[in-house]
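Lecture notes, structural biology module. Today: joint structure prediction for complexes of two components.
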Amino acid sequence: GENVEQHPSTLSVQEGDSAVIKCTYSDSASNYFPWYKQELGKRPQLIIDIRSNVGEKKDQRIAVTLNKTAKHFSLHITETQPEDSAVYFCAANTGGFKTIFGAGTRLFVKA
Amino acid sequence: KAGVTQTPRYLIKTRGQQVTLSCSPISGHRSVSWYQQTPGQGLQFLFEYFSETQRNKGNFPGRFSGRQFSNSRSEMNVSTLELGDSALYLCASSFDLEKLFFGSGTQLSVL
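The predicted structure, tokenised, for the full assembly:
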């Protein structure tokens, strides 16, 4: 069945450094790849997304890249700040009525 | 516009009981998805409803069921509760079947 693997499960960086989270999906029909951020005790919220016809998308300090051939996509956060500390989830959608999530990455940004 | 509303916020049940959770989507959103969130397991897809029809289902036992009403509100039912059903249950509504807007969740504890 469809599966999304996410690495690492925990990531600790110093404030100002960059953070990279990587995901791999199994269903080649997947065409939409969102990223969600979940702060402690809060609901997941969409922070950025990318479609299969685009290789890279940037929004201020965050960017996503997609390699369709390898079925890999990544989240890049530059100049990390303490408020970036949260759990980040990657996900894949095949255009149907199902979004599959990775297991999540807990990001700690140390001041 | 009001966000996704889930009730109740907390529930404590004992093994063998059944439980019903409610989700009111954002006005105009006809798709409602349900997810189970447990530590280390990420967001596990339960099922998705669109226009009162279940369009997709995850790999959960038949004890987990749901329905959607004509006003797009959705309910999820778990029968014969087990200890392992303790989790945060999140619902998400969508307008475009891609971007998900999550509720705050129902924290279910099974004793």
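Point to remember: The radius of gyration of chain A is 13 Å.
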